[in-house]
Design brief:
It comes from Lysobacter hankyongensis. By secondary structure, this protein is mainly alpha-helical. 71% of the residues lie in helices and 0% in strands.
Length: 104
């Protein structure tokens, strides 16, 4: 926490940063494939949706997987996937497997 901000402001700043990341992945970089995010960063849009759902559950809010994904993708995942997600190449799958081994 920044010593110059109170906890509420810190939470608001963190939420704003999260929304900017979500919107960036949703709108400006929908071309970036989830598998590439997993290889390079160890998380993807689906991870963000899971974390969002976990945060809701911690607060007693029931949120199913589809609703959480829609909050991250900006549309139902079933609609987003055919528009933006390509099949992983053999190279991507190999890189993903290697990344999983490095971080296991």
């Amino acid at each position: 926490m920044n010593p110059q901000t109170d906890p509420q402001t810190t939470t608001e700043l963190e939420a704003a940063a999260f929304r900017r990341l979500r919107d960036h992945l949703m709108r400006e970089r929908a071309d970036v494939q989830n598998i590439d995010l997993m290889i390079l960063a160890g998380f993807c849009r689906n991870c963000l949706a899971d974390w969002y759902r976990d945060a809701a559950a911690e607060r007693g809010i029931a949120l199913d997987k589809d609703a959480a994904r829609e909050a991250i993708y900006g549309m139902p995942f079933a609609q987003w996937k055919p528009q933006h997600q390509k099949d992983a190449t053999p190279e991507q799958l190999a890189a993903f497997e290697a990344a999983q081994k490095r971080h296991a």
